[in-house]
Amino acid sequence: MPQITRTVRIGSSHGLHARPAKLFAQAAKESGIPVTIAKDAGAPVNAASILGIIALGLEQGDYVTLTADGDTADATLERLAELLTTDHDAE
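Request: output the structure for the sequence above.
Response:
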């Protein structure tokens, strides 16, 4: 199965800080397939690594590219994109 990519915009008003980064990394890990996240044209990092995600320094409005490979890649990217576009700071 070919790699699938999706570009999304960060929705959390305070960016991807510890709590939303943890939710995202946990969902990526639970997907069971390799997923990466990259800011703009930067180097991709393992989406299941909370430290890698926080190191990207993602702020509200930043665009990121998600890439996944596997049978459930499309559904996985849909779920992860939903987590990234949600404003977790408004809850």
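Residues 39 and 64 are 5 Å apart (CA to CA).
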